[in-house]
Amino acid sequence: xTPDLTPKLPGQEPDSAAPPRRESRGPAAEPTHALARGPVVxxxxxxxxxxxxxxRELQYGQGVTLARSSPNDQYLAMARAVRHYLMAxxxxxxxxRREHPAKMVGxxxxxxxxxxxxxxxxxxxxxxxxxxxxxxxxxxSLDTMRAQExxxxxxxxxxxxxAACFIxxxxxxxxxxVGYGIRYEYGIFRQTFVDGRQxxxxxxxxxxGNPWEFPHPEREVEVNFGGHTEQYTDEDGRERTRWIPGWxxxxxxxxxxxxxxxxxxxxxxxxxxARATHAFDLQIFNSGxxxxxxxxxxxxxxxxxxxxxxxxxxxxxxxxxQQQYFFVAxxxxxxxxxxxxxxxxxxRLPDQIIFQLNDTHPVIAVPELMRLLIDDKGMEWDEAxxxxxxxFAYTCHxxxxxxxxxxxxxxxxxxxxxxxxxxxxxxxxxxxxxREAFPGDELRVRRMSIVQDHPFRAVRMAHLATVAGAKVxxxxxxxxxxxxxxxxxDFAQMYPDKFTNVTNGVTPRRFxxxxxxxxxxxxxxxxxxxxxxxxxxxxxxxxxxxxxxxxEQFRQAKQANKERLRALLLVxxxxxxxxxxxxxxxxxxxxxxxxxxxxxxxxxxxxxSIRSGEVAAEDVTPRTVIFGAKAAPGYHMAKETIALINAVxxxxxxxxxxxxxxxxxxxxNYNVTLAETLIPAADLxxxxxxxxxxxxxxxxMKFALNGALTVGTDDGANVEIRQLVGDDNFFLxxxxxxxxxxxxxxxxxxxxxxxDNPRLxxxxxxxxxxxxxxxxxxxxxxxxxxxxxxxxxMALADYQSYIDVQERIDAAYADTEAWTRSAILNxxxxxxxxxxxxMHDYLDRIxxxxxxx
Length: 853
Ligand SMILES: *Cc1c(COP(=O)(O)O)cnc(C)c1O
What we know:
By secondary structure, the protein is an alpha/beta fold. It has 2 domains: about 100-115 and about 150-500 and about 845-850, Rossmann fold (3-Layer(aba) Sandwich), CATH 3.40.50.2000; about 510-835, Glycogen Phosphorylase B (Rossmann fold). Residues about 1-15 have low confidence and may be disordered. The chain binds pyridoxal-5'-phosphate (PLP). The site of pyridoxal-5'-phosphate has 12 residues, from helix 8, helix 26 and helix 27.
């Protein structure tokens, strides 16, 4: 509920009652002492130097002696000590960018799934050995310190992780970039299982203190909401519009360091946190209702309270639109008012910045910039629109029509009345152009309109982004093609040059170097140091695939990673992984289109074939299947699937008939930290979405780079992975996208597939009988009925093909040398999937000239 507040405070003297404000500008006088004038001096790079920093932070920062300190004290102190080593570079990078302003990337993303910061900082500063030695002097283990950190889970999955990889790469390439986002007080929920069912627990990641952020309350900005607009005539006699907001909040920026890889560059990630405005509490305060004033405070701060745990489906909630507008309004204001020089001519804005829209979440920035230019800066519409169109580019992340965000007109009008007017203004002019280009085609006009009428009046954010954006990109070749041909075909016809592709990538720093030290060492020995910055050099591994000694070392590295995973899962989940198994891993968000259900059908097929005696246990390639997946809390079918996976795992792991041959593990709370241990240990990477549904995937890239072979459909970036690693080193199965389309068109009847395939029938019947649910068929009926009578993502249609390819995989894994050879070739040929390469593509195809490399 919106408290009925107006920011105008009639008849009071705000200064006497308002909370004190701090100045945001620094000293004007020149310092006299040399220390105060010179550049920032980093601490000494030695274990003694680090020890000094650490103890100072412990004693003066935490206020405890080493003897009395808790592991959390030690972690906070050591993190701050590590931070000191980045600080000089951070300040220097900022100074350099101020003094030599070049065009900058403003990456706008509602999510950043950063993962733990400590190791990343140690890697960026090349300090692991120094820190380890210094801590050892204090009897502290670095691993214990690492384990103290709760990862900042400010994202749901792939989209948020992509943003984190991109800002890492931009810092490593020394591109001027500020990442803008939201500092959620509660990130993605912590997943626990109760009787095998997902239970969500709030993620209190800030509760022990966060040494990686720098709040800057003196740089707060005001964000307005609600109210109405009115027309007036300005001094020059021009008709103008003014927004009279109904309420407002403050955005406080929190800065995070984004270090490049050992290159002296540290960029900034600026995350916004909502606070109540002073006016806001003051008015109620003056009414004498203290409790009400505090309630208002809470209301304002709710905006950045929690990350919406939805993935691939927009949850149409008012608070979410508030979050979106809040963070882009803060970011634009911060950039225009605080980053640009005060006398900057805004006509030149496109020479200074390109805002990349990570999906539609930040698209409300488009009318916001128009509003700033027209209402606040007095520009004419046409000029403002010309500038706006050059300042934004849009990345689409989906192919699911239901995942395209729309906001009810009623809601936008109530929350952002001026923006709704501007959106109508944009739409009116745009539809005129459509009518001009396609006379008489009113159906097309309706299809393309930014404002839809059916099933309810709403703003189509993807259309707005496509009309406004200088470029629109998909995230893998196939996705970009389907984006043009199927999702936005009218727009592709109208603006053929707008559409482009940038295939996603992942940062090799975190996902190879940091996550897989054993493999990294091997790579460095083989191709020399520095590949972390130029991943194309992995191709130098190609010839080593033929070297039996290297293959043996490669296997040993994989084995070491499996041991590390075993140790982790034992303490983390109380799970004991069997030894010597093929490790078959499917980790990603739980979604029907990703088809965890198909993987589950395979697991039950293996189980049933051993149980029934169809194959002798000793003829089976021993396999452990690991799942990791969170389901959106309101996504019923996804949660049913989780419950069933856990039920199947429990049954299989307890059955002596399959012991030593088949095991299933489902560690709870899949996150970046778990991914970093799981992925390097995997032999087989499961990328089995229905073709035409996964935009790109980035998990698939992480696995290939860590020497797992992929079993996958011809979908997303799998297509490019297969092209690069070669058909012999990739297990392709299932329908292609055109085949899927054809089956849709001809009418797909899953129950017929079931009836026609005796093996599939046995497997589904076994599940349906309650064999995994204590004899209770009721607990599986939703899952089974959906497969038989709906199966929107055609798991049954691809079942036989999947079983067949898995049998080939069993045989292939038995040939150890050939498997290792393929695994090495996967690493050697996957260098393309570095997010550094993605950034080069954005620079070439989207961000354009003016960005200095
Ligand atoms: C990489 C990553 C993802 C994305 O995985 P996909 O298989 O591409 O969906 C999701 N979550 C985490 C924690 C990741 O690290």
